[in-house]
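[stage:ingest] chain + small molecule (4'-deoxy-4'-aminopyridoxal-5'-phosphate)
[stage:ingest] validated
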Amino acid sequence: MEYAFFEGRFVPIEEANINIKTNSFHYGTAIFEGLRAYWNEREEQLYILFAREHYERLIRNARSLFMDLPYTVDDLVEITKDLLRKNEIREDVYIRPIVYFKDLALTPKLIGYTPEIAIYTYNFGRYLDTSKGIRVKVSSWRRNDDNSIPSRWKVAGAYINSALAKTEALMAGYDEALMLNSQGFVAEGSGENIFLIRDGKAITPSYSDHILEGITRKAVITLLRNDLLVEVEERPVARSELYVADEIFLTGTAAEVTPVIEVDNRKVGGGKIGEITRQLQEIYFNAVRGRVERYKSWLTPVYES
Ligand code: PMP
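[stage:predict] done
[stage:export] tokens:
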């Protein structure tokens, strides 16, 4: 039996349904998260990656939209562990929490409504091809401006911007879109942050470049600096820097560390996965599965050991 956490309790997934009159369904005023949990076969343990960080971001983002939940970060981590145990998950899995206004009311506003949270598990598998690398296209769609719909928040309605860019890229035969921000600098992918490697240094757009404050981005900065001894610059990135980069990769909970081997029909590096990207992938995939002792603090075990 598959369960979801819905309206304050665990219910069979078939019963976790909202009414068509639900306010957030109409106006996209929902805040969501995406977490992954990784199965460690040797330890027979399921590890949730960055559980606290995701729920801290969710609660902070929700507050920005006047959605105050009656749950703490610790409560939500415990609920998620319970859900994974109830669903008897013994493989890699994706977890989707979503906060929404449950009121059956038709005004696009953020006050006077009741926030609710739902959490369910999803078998995502591989989101982008992390083994071969992907081909990307700079989109004709600009990333949401912070003064319109902040990209910093994972707000449902904002994802029309990602959907437009991703669709354009797929229809043109590419795997993913890169979006520029309203100032014309590189922002991010439709669901990923971006890093460039040039002359042995890493460069990534900063928090003021109209991007999501990616949790994987932050972890990857740590790995680059501490493990690969690669300097990281956070600053505005010009479009043409993409074409002269030695390596490019995307980061995200779903995308993990995805190498980019082509941008706008120009090969990145030699059109193969770069050395720093390859090393980063190796340590990232080991860390998230609990195979790197010093990064075990990233993980929340689900089962009693
Ligand atoms: N940018 C966007 C637009 C995203 O949707 C995501 C996925 N959450 C990311 C970046 C990566 O964020 P994270 O590493 O926190 O998953």
